[in-house]
Amino acid sequence: MSTTPTLRGHEAASAAGGSTAADSADAGHGTETGTGTTSGNAPDSGRDAGSSHESGSGRDAGSGRHAESGRETGPRIDPALAETSRLRIVTARHPGRIALTVLAGIVVAVIGVSLLTNPRWEWGVVGEWFFAVSIIRGLLETLKLTVLAGVVGFGLGLVLALMRLSGSGLARGVSWTFSWVFRSTPLLVQLLLWYNLGYLYQRVVIGIPFTDATLFDARTSDLMTPLLAAILGLGLHQAAYASELIRGGILSVDAGQLEAASALGIPARDRSLRIVLPQAMRAILPGAFNEIIGLVKGTSVVFVIAHAELFFTIQLIYGRTQEVLPMLLVATLWYVVITSVLSIAQYYIERHYAKGAVRVLPPTPLQRLRAAIRRDAHHAAARRDAARRPADSSEASL
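Given the sequence above, the corresponding structure tokens read:
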């Protein structure tokens, strides 16, 4: 028990003596040895402490890395993506569109209520005469005039368009002059001129020029009936507009199509009828149907030459019964029916000629209706499922 403090005191004294011996020049060998031993042991102990500290910190860092690697073993989530997933989707609002829709609905409702509640429209008279025999006969005459004048107009218009695009200066001049004359003259004037052609030329004679040989001879007034005058007036007037319409559609086709067809050695007739025209139909059809619808309504002008088409028949009836507005409403409704049928036909014909221009054809109105019914049924089923889930969860919790 008493030797331990003595040894510790001796070590302390030796350490102190070693320190003073380091400062003095005549230090003893024993003191130097003790001092050297002490000072030599200090770096070793420092290295041991450093190595133990480094190994300890290395182990701690290694364990920390292992812990971090253990936490990062799952898939990493992009913070921006996580932030985006918390966003709420809000539908775009269109206040102007909604206001216009409401305004249009109000206007339509006011007009509808006025048509149904105003007794002066006399809907009973309209229903009485709508399917009358005389009205149906006049309607058939209107359709006949439309078909015949349309065939003449568009057939001659195609010829005039090809003449206008030809390389012959004479053909181009004739085509341009025809379009200029008939587009510059009102339709009513043309109808009256054709109907009164007998005043200018009493007879129509066809024979061999500069000889007395006659192939055909008849009075002009016998030939120029109201039907023929109407067909010529409407058809030639329509041809002037149809030629420009068809010419514009042909010019819309890329010139490379003609160059490729020429390089393949395809004849000019086949190039025009089988390559150019089918592609030009997409540009021609909207304007062509617009012209046909205008031609249907333009047949009402034929009443000036006393041809019994729909409008002329209506005039005769209300001139006898004095029921002007109901009879005009009958004619209006029949024109609406005809133009509606033509608009439906236009849609399907345009859809047919769009096959070579679009990858997917637009859906028809019937297809849109079926898709809307399926979508509404799907939404109704989804709402029923959503309403059923809270009830199921409450039952499960009970």
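The longest strand covers residues 214-219. Try to locate this feature in the token string yourself.
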